[in-house]
């Protein structure tokens, strides 16, 4: 039986989501260890990878279960008991054998959370603290990313992917209490694409860059900004499997 598992995790406790050689803690490595304690040897597949320190409120995995694990509620409790507090199982359900956590996904949504308040140690791993911004400029600039674009100038080097075109369906920039929140929903993202987009928006909000420069970089004419926003404030917040 193929099982779809939706989890959340505190990324500061892990060196990314993907399993890595060595003893470094990763989300999948920790999850695989919990499965093996229950005699489940199949390797789970995630909807996508998140980098070191990046959080998730709705990461999706699939794993094929042996026949004796047909009671999913019991499995949820058994897995939860063996996972650290930094990983939580939100949902666990049976799906068809054709379901694939990565390849069946239609849309991926990320959220980036910032605060203009003075930094404090209790949110240091969860929020990116920023200076006072012209947030209205960011609200106007973020919509430039919507639509289909070649994001080659908005990716980190080292990726082997050759197709750089992605379609961003929606963007949003809004205030929630004392937080500033940016959201992006797309059919997919390149390596560190969101963090580079966010940093460009922060430069615009601080008056160090313009929307015209953003458009030039998006059109591949000139690279004006290649730095990444910190990983602390980035959250994988949803995977949509319906068109």
Task: Name the descriptors.
ten-stranded mixed β-sheet; 243 residues; Alpha-Beta Plaits; 2 domains; globular; alpha+beta
Outline of this structure?
With 243 residues, the chain is of the alpha+beta class. 21% of the residues lie in helices and 29% in strands.
What do these coordinates show?
- The protein has 243 residues and is an alpha+beta fold.
- The chain folds into 2 domains: 94 residues, Alpha-Beta Plaits (2-Layer Sandwich), CATH 3.30.70; 134 residues, 2-Layer Sandwich (Alpha-Beta Plaits), CATH 3.30.70.660.
- Helices cover 21% and strands 29% of the residues.
- Strands 1, 2, 3, 4, 5, 6, 7, 8, 9 and 10 form a 10-stranded mixed beta sheet that branches.
- The protein is globular and about 60 Å long.
- The mean pLDDT is 94.
Question: Helix and strand layout, with pairings?
Answer:
Layout: E1 2-9, H1 27-37, E2 45-46, E3 55-64, H2 72-82, E4 87-95, E5 107-115, E6 128-129, H3 135-141, E7 147-150, E8 165-176, E9 179-186, H4 193-205, H5 211-218, E10 234-240
Helix pairs in contact: 3-4
Give the name of the CATH architecture of the largest domain.
2-Layer Sandwich
Fraction in helix: 10-25%
Class by alpha and beta content: alpha+beta
* N-to-C order of helices and strands: EHEEHEEEHEEEHHE
The domain tally reads 2
Kindly identify the CATH topology of the largest domain: Alpha-Beta Plaits
Work out the number of β strands. 10
CATH class of the largest domain: Alpha Beta
CATH superfamily of the largest domain: Pseudouridine synthase I, catalytic domain, C-terminal subdomain
pLDDT averaged residue by residue: 94
Rg: 19 Å
Task: Please describe the biggest sheet, giving its number of strands, its sense, and whether it closes into a barrel.
Answer: 10 strands, mixed
Low-confidence stretches: none
Distance between the termini: 25 Å
């Amino acid at each position: 039986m193929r099982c779809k598992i939706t989890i959340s995790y505190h990324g500061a406790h892990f060196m990314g989501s993907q399993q890595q050689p060595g003893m470094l803690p990763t989300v999948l490595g920790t999850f695989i260890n919990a499965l093996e304690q229950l005699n489940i040897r199949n390797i789970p597949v995630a909807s996508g990878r998140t980098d070191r320190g990046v959080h998730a409120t709705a990461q999706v995995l699939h794993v094929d279960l042996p026949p004796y694990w047909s009671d999913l509620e019991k499995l949820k409790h058994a897995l939860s008991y063996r996972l650290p507090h930094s990983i939580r199982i939100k949902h666990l359900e049976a799906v068809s054998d054709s379901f694939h956590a990565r390849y069946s996904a239609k849309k991926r949504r990320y959220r980036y959370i910032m605060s203009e308040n003075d930094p404090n140690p209790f949110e240091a791993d969860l929020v990116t603290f920023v200076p006072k911004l012209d947030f209205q400029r960011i609200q106007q600039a973020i919509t430039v990313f919507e639509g289909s674009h070649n994001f080659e100038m908005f990716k980190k080097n080292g990726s082997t992917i050759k197709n750089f075109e992605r379609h961003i369906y929606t963007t949003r920039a809004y205030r929630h209490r004392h937080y500033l929140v940016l959201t992006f929903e797309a059919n997919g993202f390149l390596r560190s694409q969101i963090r580079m987009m966010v940093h460009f928006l922060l430069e615009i909000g601080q008056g160090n860059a313009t929307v015209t420069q953003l458009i030039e970089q998006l059109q591949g004419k000139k690279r004006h900004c290649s730095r990444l926003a910190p990983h602390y404030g980035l959250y994988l917040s949803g995977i949509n499997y319906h068109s």
